Amino acid sequence: MLSVVITAGIVIALLVPALTFFEQVPLLEFLTGTRWTPRFADASYGVLPLITATAWTALVALAVAVPCGLGSAIYLAEYAPERLRRILKPVLELLAGVPTVVFGYFALLWFTPFLQDLGLEVGPFSLLSAGMVMGVMIIPTIASVSEDAMSAVPNALRQGSAALGANRMQTSLRVVFPAAFSGVVAAVVLGISRAVGETMIVTIAGGQMVQMVSNPLQQGATMTTFIANAALGDSRVGSLEYNTLFVVGLLLFLLTLIVNLIAIELVRRFRQEY
Amino acid sequence: MSLYTPAASGADARRAVLSTSGRSKEQTPQSVLFIVLLWLSLLIGFVTLAVLLVDTFADGLTRLDGRLFTGYPSSRAEEAGARPAILGSLWVVGTTAVLAVPLGVAAAVHLEEFADRKRWWNRLVEINISNLSAVPAIIYGMLALGALALIGVQQKNIVIGGAIALAMLILPVIIISTREAVRAVPRELRDGSLAIGATPLQTTWRITLPAALPGIATGTILGLSRALGEAAPLLLLGGLVFLRFDPNGMLSQFTTMPIQIFSWTAQPQAEFHTLAAGASMLLMALVLLMNGAAIYIRNRYQKRW
Question: In whole angstroms, what is the distance from residue B75 CA to residue A1 CA?
Fold first, then answer.
């Protein structure tokens, strides 16, 4: 019962302020506007700058996390000797617990200077640095979930593949990977929702300037950065500014919900029972 | 799995199967490149995380001292400490545990043992729980903020508010792991208990739950360690405050360690960054210790029925 109450609670708690917001700002302007300046006298409420920043960080994070996570999973499930696997898997799970604020500290004070040393044109804040560190943060999640899926593929399939003369790479890529596909999809989607909803890393290292982001070397404020910063300032309950907080929150919630529902459908469609 | 599977399990069995197919085939250029790529992908993750640990350790070591535990936040870095934040974290996570653990375990036991799975609302609940676990943490902060505003509480930065947000955040974790643990208890144990005259409630309380305890403990500890490291929802509740007193109750103002680290990282002076690193080490030690304990309990007490 409780989870339904919580979900209903989330929807109501976000909807009420959001509806009052849309009485004052038309929906179309909100979704297609390219200026986000709720604090200016000449206030403008176009959410696109926040969305572009969120999309870029999530893309960078996934570009790091998906290949590394799946590579680690294939290695752990198909190649690693049992003893090494028994050490590596718990270590991976342990590292999944590093608090995000520590990743933020690391991104700002070690990784960004490191990127600058490499000769990249990044400022003290950049979505590239925040996204890459976020990607590393997500690797254990993707690796752990998809490794479980690959380990669950029955050995008979591997034996059949070997009997047909395939080597281990061919078996991993053409037999085990497709058979575990629904689990892999679930892992990647979990990664996406974590990347979109992650707050501390982007707030610390991604910068606070709201702007349309066209390449990840820029800084920019994501939806979560905006929510965190707006919450730090003292905005009166019921004011338009307080309501914008909830509108952006609602958008974030709907985005992750849609991604999730698509995932559930994909998992259902590709599930194979053994 | 079938009769043809060798007795050895896991990767060893896989290797045994595949090694019979000959060495030369495993050493084509592509498959050598493939395994190098796999190694690389594993290395990137581990090396970055190792650098993170070493870097934080090197930065923070000088300030991981007594002042960190006894000092109050200060504008002068050499005097500042995290005492209110440490106590605040303990208060908030403790309250979270009191709220979330009984609720989560009860919900899971209900779903697993008593709920009729054919009813549409029970199916709705199940889909819901898996969805809730993917909701961004910051949303739970907004929910708690909205709830407090709705019942007209003016002071949003109170321990119980933070605990409510974190409890909602970790409930799905506790529910899912408890359900798995309860499901793993074999039918025969319950049937045996019922056969000697116990009621279903007695069976659940005295047979199923004790048998599922390691699994429940693992899920609970993982959930609480997540609550301990989480900053975003509390930031929304105004957790970033300058406190010069110890939190002393459910209605007390609070700040927590992750938020203290965030605020020190955001300062321009390098001395505060050192402080942030010191506090990060303390926080990570706590979180990793809890996770380690959870993984140990799981591997040690995992019963094969």
Answer: 48
* Residues of A in Cβ contact (< 8 Å) with B273: 105, 109
Contact of B270 with A109, CB cutoff 8 Å: no
* Cα torsion B256, B262, B264, B267: sign: negative
Residues 6+ apart with CB under 8 A from B197: none
What's the rounded Cα separation, in Å, for the pair A263 and A108? 33
- Give dist(CA A232, CA B44) in Å, integer: 35
What pLDDT digit, counting tens, does each position of A145-159 carry? 898 889 888 888 888
The count of other CB atoms within 10 Å of the CB of residue B20 is: 10
Q: Is residue B8 pLDDT above 60, yes or no?
A: no
Cβ atoms < 10 Å from Cβ of B34: 20
Q: What is the pLDDT of residue A133?
A: 92
Note the pLDDT of residue A43. Answer: 66
For A41, A66, B34, B42, the CA distances from A149, given in Å and listed in that order, are 54, 15, 20, 18
User: How far is CA A257 from its chain centroid?
Assistant: 13
> What pLDDT does B214 receive?
87
CB atoms within 10 A of CB A101: 29
Q: Report the C-alpha gap between A79 and A72 in whole angstroms.
A: 10
Which residue bears the tokens 């070997």?
A: A162
Amino acid (one-letter) located at B245: F
How far apart are the CA of B54 and the nearest CA of chain A, in angstroms? Answer: 11
Contact A93/B265, CB-based, under 8 Å? no
Q: How much is the ipTM here? A: 0.82
* Angular region, B157: left φ>0, alpha ψ -120 to 50, beta rest: beta
Amino acid at B79: E
Q: Of chain A residues 186-215, which have a CB less than 8 A from chain B?
A: 189-190, 193-194, 196-200, 203-204
CA–CA dist A48, B253 (Å, integer): 36
Is the CB of residue B279 less than 8 Å from the CB of residue A101? no
The CB-side HSE value for B88 (13 A sphere, CA atoms) comes to 32
Question: With an 8 Å Cβ cutoff, are B142 and A193 in contact?
Answer: no
Distances (CA, A) of B6 to A159, A181, B11: 11, 25, 12
Helix (H, G, I), strand (E, B) or coil at A120: coil
Cα of A200 to nearest chain B Cα, Å: 6
More confident residue, B239 or B262: B262
Number of neighbouring beta carbons within 10 Å of residue B120: 7
Q: Is A164 on the interface with B (CB under 8 A)?
A: no
